[in-house]
Amino acid sequence: MLERFRQFWNRLLSPVADGLIRLGVSPDAVTFVGTAGVCVGALWLFPQGEFFWGTMFVTAFVFSDIVDGTMARKLGRSSNWGAFLDSTLDRLGDAAIFGGIALWYAWEGDSPLYLCLSLICLVLGMMTSYTRARAESLGMDAKGGIAERSDRLVAILVMTGFSGLFDLPILQHATLWVLAVASLVTVVQRIAKVRRQALGSADG
Known about the structure:
Layout: H1 2-22, H2 27-44, H3 51-62, H4 64-75, H5 80-106, H6 112-137, H7 149-165, H8 169-203
Helix pairs in contact: 1-4, 2-3, 2-4, 2-5, 3-7, 5-6, 6-8, 7-8
């Protein structure tokens, strides 16, 4: 489902990519600007409790992740460097989103429980990415799981936006609980998947 969603936005944002290419903008520049926008929005607006407008701001820059990839393909510049940069800055953006929410609960939100839960989501999100990257560096596959990055990102942004729009903190609270559990399960699933591959190679 999310893959079809991504394909839809790829087609819709293709003219934007074409326009940036004509202006001489590089895919790497779009990647940097997009990440900077996500970080600024998340770390500036979320800690103030501006969850709806913060989500709108962050979402506008999240689309750069689609635009830069489209530009790279059109220019024939898809490379290991581009993939590395994109993946690395994605982690930074994800950390800023959960970090911004954590700062709200540390300050104005005044909730040690949800501060801890936000940080747990941040750490486990990084762990899901690390398990995949480490497995691939060893020649194994660790894709999959019930909460991949796109699932986590869509869930937290949508529910954070709605929680601000309708003044219903329970929406964000419930999402943090679900993501904490789902991310932990995903990490375990990926570890188990790599273990099966490693033992299969050893047996072979």
